Amino acid sequence: MSEQSGILQEMNDRSREVFRRVVEGYLASGDPVGSRTLTRDFSEKVSAATIRNTMQDLEYLGLLNSPHASAGRVPTQMGLRMFVDGLLEVGDLDDRDRAQMDATAASNSDDVSGILDRVGSALSGVTQGASLVLAPKHEAPIRHIEFVSLAHDRALAVLVFSDGHVENRLFHPPAGQTPSSMREAANFLNAIIEGKTLSELQSTIQREMATRRQEIDTLAAELVESGTVIWEGGEGQPERLIVRGRSNLLTDRSEAADLDRIRTLFDDLERKRDIADFLELAEDGDGVRIFIGSENKLFSLSGSSLVVSPYMNSDRKIVGAVGVIGPTRLNYGRIVPIVNYTAQLVGKLISDRS
Question: Mind listing the GO molecular function terms for this protein (predicted)?
Answer without folding.
Answer: DNA binding
